[in-house]
Write a structure and sequence with these properties.
With 151 residues, the chain is of the alpha/beta class. Helices cover 44% and strands 16% of the residues. It has a single domain, classed as Rossmann fold. The protein is built from five helices and six strands. Strand 5 and strand 6 form a beta hairpin. Helix 1 runs parallel beside helix 5.
Length: 151
């Protein structure tokens, strides 16, 4: 059965995930190290992980399976999920793919180095309504594609 795993600590599209999951009757795991509000849906399982570097990522990577979907901005987590045959989407709707993950990991390393040396001090642009809309569309398409593959 197709499931959705959300790296929920800083995810701006939790409500959108629930909207799509409800439409398709899909189980959603909201994985966090705390500070997340409960969801009044029987489809949502709130998973609170002990605080620690990558603890939520490790839980998701251990539980996600072939054909499942993860929602994350974390590039190394996306790579781990792709290795297990899952789909991975950023909250802006951009998909991580087998073809793009290597470049994403390399760019992440480069940007981290530039931030550490003070070359770059800004962060990503603010999350927009368009990002939210793009995400809803991308998640719907990803769910429908995954459902076809699991038939």
């Amino acid at each position: 059965m197709l499931e959705i795993y959300v790296d929920a600590d800083a995810c701006p599209v939790k409500d959108e995930v629930l909207k799509v999951a409800t439409r398709h009757s899909l189980k959603v795991f909201m994985v966090s190290d705390g500070g997340i509000r409960p969801y009044p849906s029987p489809l949502v399982e709130l998973v609170i992980i002990e605080q620690g570097a990558d603890a939520a990522d490790d839980w998701i990577a251990e539980h996600i399976g072939n054909g499942d979907i993860t929602i994350t901005s974390d590039i190394p987590l996306a790579a781990r999920c792709l290795e297990k045959g899952a789909a991975a989407l950023k909250p802006n709707g951009e998909a991580f793919t087998e073809n793009s993950i290597g470049m994403a990991l390399a760019t992440r390393e480069l940007m981290q180095g530039l931030r550490e040396t003070g070359e770059i001090t800004g962060g990503p642009r603010p999350f927009s309504k368009r990002d939210r809309s793009e995400f809803l569309n991308a998640l719907e398409v990803t769910v429908q594609s995954a459902k076809k593959l699991t038939k």
